[in-house]
Amino acid sequence: MRSSRQYNPDLTPPWKRSVPVPEVPAEADLVVEEVTTGFCGAVVRCEKTAQGPTVTLEDRFGKHRVFPMEPRGFLLEGRVVTLVRPSSSVPQSPARTASGSIAVPGARARVARAGRIYVEGRHDAELVERVWGDDLRIEGVVVEYLEGVDDLPSIVRSFGPGPDARLGVLVDHLVPGSKESRIAAEVTGEHVLVVGHPYVDVWEAVKPASVGIPAWPSVPRGEDWKTGVCRGLGWPSNTGAAWQRILSSVRSYKDLEPELLGRVEELIDFVTVGS
Asked: Is 158 helix (H, G, I), strand (E, B) or coil?
């Protein structure tokens, strides 16, 4: 006689059995907490390793940590979950602009605001556009170049800065006691911010390693700096071609020195305050 009773081979008492938990795709920007360490962060990427799949989390301070994607290994909104690799159609990390900001797909350029950012020359403007162009268009900030700072006081007076038309200025070689520092002090005010970097020219704000050189050469006082750089590096004495070579080596903010990065970010924040 065949018995209809079905026996469960699992002899673990019911109160000790693991309750199934949801499987959640580790999509970019998903915020979770690792159960063992308590580290909380957003998913940056997933990787397949010899030891099994891993997930990289980024906390609010920008610190990254890699964890194995073990069952019941994470908390999502206080609930235990198992992270799994997302489908191949899902991006593994958020797209970012050259400045490191999270990109906004399909975002339209904002109508230009009254505020402006002035830089000394064409090369400065091209470098700022290469790294911060996407951010500036979203914010509606226009960058113009001055061809030097000698006329900056009259330019500022003509611009007429105010609460709704702030003016930010980026100056090369802004060091104590220089001509540039005296001019900066003359025009700086509540609605005008002048900042600068210590380099003779913005070329030098590009990391040598990114350009493929050991260091920027020392140019004797009195010699045109750009021409001296080309000579020191053994490049043809065509400063326009040299700049294009330098500019093409800049792919993101990581190729620039922090002394320039911080100053440009400061100007963008100043011009867009209250927006």
From this structure: helix
